[in-house]
Each structure stands twice: as C-alpha cells, then as structure tokens.
Design goal:
CATH superfamily of the largest domain: Metal-dependent hydrolases
Number of strands: 15
Order of helices and strands: EEEEEHHEHEHEEHEHHEHEHHEHHEHE
CATH topology of the largest domain: TIM Barrel
Strand content: 15-25%
Largest sheet: 9 strands, parallel
Bound molecules: zinc ion
Structural class: alpha/beta
Length: 424
C-alpha cells in the first residue's frame, strides 16, 4: 500500500484539491479521501488528469505513415479509395510477428503521447491466403501482447467483414478480413474472448466494418445476437460515394438505415459519421449513440468535416480516435477537431455558451464517450478499484507555471505537447 497526496486532480465534475489516494501493490486505487492518513504519504505536485482514450485504431496502418503522400505518374489523382488500395497491399503482407512489432511500437508511442487505453478496430484476422490461423485468434492475441508490453489498456473490437461492397463478393485483396456469415464471425469472437482471459488489461467489444462490408440482413442478425454490456463499433458515412451507394442499394442514407434497422443505444460507437444530414444527426442523439471522430486521419484522407457544432449543441456524445495513426497526439486531435469548427464558423470558441471553456468541454466530452467506447463507465475517472493511471501536467514548465487552474486544460490542448506530460 502507498498513499499519495495529489495537489490537483481532475474528476468528471472538475478539479479537486488536496486528495489522498491509496493504491495497492497492483496499482489499484483502494481509497480516495480528503482526510490526512496516519502513516507516510508522498506529495505529488502538478495537475493530474486521466489518460486520453483512443477510440479508433487500425494498428497495422501505422506502417503506412508518410508513404502515400504523392501521386504516382500513372494516376489522375488521389483520394480515400486510392489510399485504400495501398492499405490493402500492406494488409496482405503482414505476418503475425510483424503485426506484433508494429503494434508494440505504435502502442508505446500512443502511451508517450498521453493515451492510456485504445480501442482496436481489428479485421486482419486470417493468414495471407485468407485461411484461419491454427489459433483463429492469432492476430488478435498479437495485439493483446503488444498492448501488454506497451503498458496500454486495450479494448479489442473484432470486426465482421463479409463483402467487397454493397451486393459485391469480397475481392481477393480483402481475403484476410472475411467471415462468411454471422455464425463464423461469432465463433471467432468467442475465440478472441477466450484469448483475452489470459491478459488483465484487455476488454473485448464487437463490431461491423461498415454497411457496405456486411449483408444488411446479417448486420441486423448480428446486433440482435451480441450480448448487451459490450461496446459496439461501426464505420459509417465516411465518404460521399459510400452514402450514394447506400441510397441506391438500401434506399436509405447509412445512418438513417442503421437507426431504422438496428436498435441503437449508448453502447454504439459510429466511427466518422462525416456525411450525415440534420435528420440523421438527430437520430444518433435520440438513440443515445456516440460518434468517434478521427480528425488527423479524416483530414489526411480528405474525408470532409463532421457537423460538430450542431451535434455538440444538440447534446451529442463524441470521442476521438487516431484511426490510420497519421497523427498520434491527443492534443492535436482535439485541437483540430475544434479548429475545424472555428474555420467553418469564422468564430472563436464556437462550441461554447457564455461562461464555458472550449478545452474543458471537449476534454470531458471525449473522455466520457471515450470511456464508453472502451466498454467502461463514463464516470470512470479516478475511482476505487481502478488502475491509478493518469497524466501529470508539469507545472514547473514556463508554459504552465503560474497559470490559473481554469486555464490548465486549455493550455494543454491548444499549446502543449507530450513533452509537457508525465506518466505517474
Ligand atoms: Zn477506421
């Protein structure tokens, strides 16, 4: 047992002063108290905040960073779909050892930048021929080992991927991703759950790649069969062409179709949701579902901008993710998420009502929805029974020195980098 005196600690309802936190030998919090303990305690200077939650990752894509920022002479242009071809080439080449190595490096970098928990949207399930490995959860287990080695909590979200597009057979280049039907996906999901029992930092969620990648009747069937109490993730409305294809095949826009056919709730995390209309925005909020925004990847891929101002002001819930990992700083994701709104609105602090601080708003919004995307409670900041992990903001740095408490998060999000954070 060890007791710390935390001078400033960020909880869901704001900053707390002079709190004593006792942890056991496994670093789990056993007590939070304002009372000075009888025995020895260790003062901790600075501002302690919960670690950032990364709600969307494809670990293998970290190997692509910087390799696709030019247009081949034979091509006319570059967009999400041409980038996807390069991503498929990479996906076809990666061995389990390589995946583990890439993910270990990536997760260590995530941790250095301030993330403490990541949701891995994982569809690279099979061998290079498209056949299951001897251990069907081989690739998932490699990600679990990587997270364990990096000291990062992991929510593994095995993904159901079945088709090459609306009414299209899977193409050869997608062969490592494919489960032929709901039952074969559920068998894989059960294997992955068994593997996760070997690790103490892994939660298992579930998900569907996108409306275009799974038959619509199987999406309905799967979400009916999955247990409640686990996070459920899906890519949706990232590209305008995907929205058009959905309308022509299903007669509805993607979010419209999903909300009308699947009983969404707060366990659902709709990744991107870039191209939604006002009705779809309201449908997401009415269902209490969450959106995952990945600003650096969405910018890099030229996806477009999510209508964050309307969604935020209507009470929508959203988290952040690093997706392709072209950017890895949570501060940068939050900054650009909010700057996108400023650039459209030509105004400062456009998400705020009078009296509000934009950094406080977006930190807590993305922390709470981020926790839910991990399969944890939105209240899970520093609580008894939790791992006492957090980020200590270094107040001896000139950037933070003598700043008032109410400017700490805005200094962090708008002006600071990982060099200002320390893991405790
Ligand atoms: Zn993604």
């Amino acid at each position: 047992m060890k007791t710390y005196l935390i001078k400033k600690l960020l909880q869901k309802d704001g900053w707390k002063n002079e709190l004593y936190i006792t942890v056991d030998e496994n670093n789990l919090i056993t007590e939070l108290s304002n009372e000075k303990p009888e025995g020895e305690f260790f003062p901790m200077d600075g501002y302690l905040i919960p670690g950032f939650k990364n709600a969307h990752s494809h670990a293998f894509q970290y190997a692509m960073g910087g390799l696709n920022e030019s247009i081949p002479e034979s091509a006319e242009g570059d967009d999400f779909w041409s980038w996807r071809e390069n991503m498929y080439s990479l996906a076809l080449s990666i061995s389990p050892d390589e995946l583990q190595e890439i993910a270990t490096n990536l997760y260590m970098e995530m941790r250095r930048h301030g993330y403490t928990h990541v949701a891995e949207f994982h569809y690279l399930h099979h061998d290079t021929e498209g056949l299951p490995y001897k251990n069907p959860a081989e690739m998932s287990e490699r990600l679990m080992v990587a997270a364990n080695q990096a000291g990062l909590a992991l929510t593994l979200v095995p993904i159901f991927y079945q088709m090459g597009g609306f009414n299209l057979e899977p193409n050869e280049r997608q062969r490592r991703f494919i489960s032929k039907d709901v039952d074969s996906y559920l068998e894989l999901y059960e294997e992955i759950k068994k593997s996760a029992e070997k690790f103490n930092n892994v939660i298992v969620g579930a998900g569907v790649h996108s409306l275009r990648a799974v038959k619509n009747e199987d999406i309905i069937k799967l979400f009916k069969k999955l247990p409640s109490g686990i996070p459920k993730h899906i890519h949706i409305s990232e590209q305008i062409m995907e929205v058009r294809d959905c309308v022509s095949h299903l007669g509805k826009r993607p979010v419209e179709w999903l909300c009308e056919n699947v009983k969404l709730n707060e366990e659902f995390h709709l990744v991107h949701s870039t191209h939604i209309n006002d009705e779809e925005l309201k449908m997401i909020i009415d269902a209490k579902a969450n959106v995952v925004l990945c600003p650096s990847t969405e910018a890099n891929l030229g996806d477009g901008l999510f209508p964050l101002k309307d969604f935020h002001l209507a009470g929508g819930n959203y988290s952040i993710g690093t997706d392709s990992h072209i950017g890895l700083s949570p501060m940068e994701e939050l900054r650009w998420m909010e700057y996108g709104v400023r650039l459209i609105e030509k105004k400062r602090n456009p998400l705020c009502k009078p009296g509000e601080n934009s950094a406080d708003l977006i930190f807590h919004k993305t922390q709470e929805a981020g926790l839910m995307a991990m399969g944890r409670s939105a209240n899970d900041y520093f609580e008894v029974g939790n791992n006492f992990g957090g980020l200590l903001i270094q107040t001896d740095n000139p950037l933070f020195k003598d700043k008032p408490e109410e400017a700490i998060l805005s200094t962090l999000i708008y002006s600071a980098g990982p060099e200002h954070l320390k893991y405790r």
